[in-house]
Amino acid sequence: GDKAFAQFLTDEIQEEKKIQKHKSLPKVSGGWELEVHGTEAKLMRKIAGEKITVTFNINNSIPPSAEDDTQEGQKPDEQEPELTSTPNFVVEVIKDDTKQTLVLDCHYPEDEIGHEGEEESDIFTIREVSFQPTGESDWKDTNYTLNTDSLDWALYDHLMDFLADRGVDNTFADELIELSTALEHQEYIKFLEDLKSFVKCQ
User: Fold this and answer.
1) For 31-60+84-107+119-186, CATH number?
2) Of 33, 29, 25, residue with least CA distance to 171
3) Which of 15, 68, 98, 187 is the most buried (most CB within 10 A)?
4) CA-to-CA distance for 102 and 100, rounded, in angstroms?
5) pLDDT tens for residues 58-70?
6) What gap in Å lies between CA 113 and CA 138, rounded to an integer?
7) Crossing angle for the helix pair 2-19 and 170-200, nearest 10 degrees?
8) What pTM was estimated for this model as a whole?
């Protein structure tokens, strides 16, 4: 059984490498620096007295596919729908002269993806906003967290503009999907390769 499994994985890895769009990770425009630690990626940039970081994790970032029931009628040569990774991402804005970091938790609403051609709507939304002590890795639950569900629209729009002024806008969000999808695919191939070595190890 293991031999067949290893053979299957070899074929699968070849297939995945064939459809891999990016041999190296795509860049995000606007002078963002990228750091990747396994499945977590961090984008950083500095602008006038501020440091902006955007962190996301590719685990569980691919929305469940609604296309599952169409598989049976597919002809063998039809491509499967492309998987897109749309991770939640956290934007931190740190001002040089304060001890606080403004943290905005953003995500891609599931129903927004793929409805282009409508009015210029934002492809991501801000879900929560809070202040956290700068430099502390553990965020405190005791800090007030603003949930945007019940938020005044004018305030919400200002928060979106605040992000856009710092380079986190629709273009950025699009490029982040591209980067995350490439990273997810790269990690998936690596996982298949590790699994193959593991299975072959007698």
Assistant:
1) 3.10.280.10
2) 29
3) 187
4) 7
5) 999 988 765 444 3
6) 32
7) 150
8) 0.84
Q: What is the DSSP letter of 70?
A: G
The 8-class DSSP code of residue 163 comes to H
pLDDT on residue 65: 65
Sort 183 into a burial class: Cβ within 10 Å, 0-12 / 13-18 / 19+.
buried
Q: What is the pLDDT, as a whole number, of residue 98?
A: 83
Domain ranges within the chain, ordered by starting residue: 31-60+84-107+119-186
According to the model, what pLDDT value does residue 73 have?
A: 44
**C-alpha to C-alpha distance for 103 and 90, rounded to whole angstroms:** 7
Phi, psi of 174 (to 5 degrees): -65, -45
Geometric angle at alpha carbon 62, from 57 and 64, rounded to 5° = 140
Whose CA is closest to 89, among 53, 115, 113, 119? 53
Tokens at 55, concatenated: 């962190």
Between β-strands 50-57 and 40-47, what pairing exists: parallel, antiparallel or unpaired? antiparallel
CA-nearest of 93, 154, 88 to 126 is: 88
CB 188 within 8 A of CB 59: no
